[in-house]
């Protein structure tokens, strides 16, 4: 029988690539996106698609219900992929900015995961893949909002994996490094909404550093890979008889995960600051 998967964040980038790739491998892909226009575009591309906005609990509930209506109440796998960033120094992040990003990157992901687990329990199997980041293991300057959500997701997912050991539901985490996507472009409106950089004590650092990275097209980051690199690891997490609990994607992800384990904190801080 054809296996089914719900993938979030399919409007572009990694989500869209994984949706197309799994469909080509014979999966029944239910693709989701936050905006109605993106859902319409997915349907025009031949996907079964639902609208699902992590920040809206009613949308999470309705989106999953619509998905299950399509599949007859079963779901073999969930790939939680959608997330966004709000660049800015910690001291410039208003409380509202953190509340907004946690609603999507953590609370919405957790809500959807909790709703999927009873379905998988009832059918006796399932695979849940959470898309984290290398920034769920180490941090970088200017990325505190995103980093804090991924650290939180790591904690939730690691605990869930231990708790699911007595079930046939497997839990895997993807720790992705630099992969081609629109996360930088998508973060610009949120940066403009929340960060009053001109009145920051770090205004010169914004002007000479972060603003250039945000607004200037500078080509791929060092070691950047296409989204197919994520698809490759996702396929293993979904189809292998013994899926790994954690997958590293890109050279920086492997390197920094090792550095996190072996280096003292001061040495790790120095290494990251030099990078």
Order of helices and strands: EHEHEHEHEHEHHHEHH
How much of the residues is beta strand, in percent?
A: 5-15%
**Distance N to C terminus:** 48 Å
Q: What is the averaged pLDDT score?
A: 96
Strand order of the largest sheet: 3-2-1-4-5-6-7
Strand runs, count:
7
Gross morphology is globular
Largest sheet, strands/sense/barrel: 7 strands, parallel
Structural class: alpha/beta
Uncertain spans, ≥5 residues at pLDDT below 50? none
- Percent of residues in helices: 40-55%
What is Rg? 19 Å
Number of helical segments with 4 or more residues: 10
Give the topology, please.
Blueprint: E1 4-7, H1 13-24, E2 28-33, H2 36-44, E3 48-51, H3 57-71, E4 77-80, H4 95-123, E5 126-131, H5 144-163, E6 169-176, H6 183-194, H7 203-215, H8 228-239, E7 246-249, H9 251-262, H10 265-274
Parallel strand pairs: 1-2, 1-4, 2-3, 4-5, 5-6, 6-7
Helix pairs in contact: 1-8, 3-4, 4-5
Report on the structure:
The chain contains ten helices and seven strands. The longest helix has 29 residues, at 95-123. The chain starts with a strand and ends with a helix. The chain has a seven-stranded parallel beta sheet with strand order 3-2-1-4-5-6-7, sandwiched between helices. Helix 4 (95-123) runs parallel beside helix 5. 52% of the residues lie in helices and 13% in strands. Strand 5 (126-131), helix 5 and strand 6 (169-176) form a beta-alpha-beta unit. The model has no long low-confidence stretch (mean pLDDT 96). The chain has helices at 13-24, 36-44, 57-71, 95-123, 144-163, 183-194, 203-215, 228-239, 251-262, 265-274, and strands at residues 4-7, 28-33, 48-51, 77-80, 126-131, 169-176, 246-249. The protein is of the alpha/beta class.
């Amino acid at each position: 029988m054809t296996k089914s998967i719900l993938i979030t964040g399919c409007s572009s980038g990694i989500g869209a690539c994984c949706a197309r790739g799994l469909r080509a491998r014979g999966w029944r892909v239910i693709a989701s996106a936050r905006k109605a226009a993106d859902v319409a575009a997915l349907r025009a591309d031949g996907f079964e698609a639902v609208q699902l906005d992590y920040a809206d609990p009613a949308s999470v509930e309705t989106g999953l219900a619509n998905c299950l209506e399509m599949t007859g109440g079963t779901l073999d796998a969930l790939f939680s992929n959608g997330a966004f960033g709000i660049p800015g120094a910690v001291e410039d992040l208003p409380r509202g900015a953190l509340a907004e990003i946690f609603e999507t990157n953590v609370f919405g992901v957790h809500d959807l995961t909790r709703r999927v687990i009873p379905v998988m329990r009832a059918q006796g199997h399932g695979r849940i893949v959470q898309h984290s980041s290398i920034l769920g293991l180490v941090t970088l300057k200017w990325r505190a909002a995103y980093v804090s959500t991924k650290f939180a997701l790591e904690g939730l997912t690691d605990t869930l994996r231990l708790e699911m050991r007595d079930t046939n539901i497997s839990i895997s985490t993807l720790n992705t490094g630099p992969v081609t996507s629109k996360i930088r472009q998508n973060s610009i409106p949120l940066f403009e909404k929340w960060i009053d950089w001109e009145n920051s004590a770090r205004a010169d650092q914004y002007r000479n550093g972060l603003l250039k990275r945000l607004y200037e097209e500078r080509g791929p980051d060092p070691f950047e890979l296409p989204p197919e690199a994520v698809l490759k690891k996702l396929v293993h997490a979904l189809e292998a008889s013994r899926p790994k609990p954690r997958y590293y994607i890109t050279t920086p992800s492997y390197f920094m995960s090792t550095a996190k384990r072996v280096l003292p904190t001061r040495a790790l801080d120095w290494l990251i600051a030099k990078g």
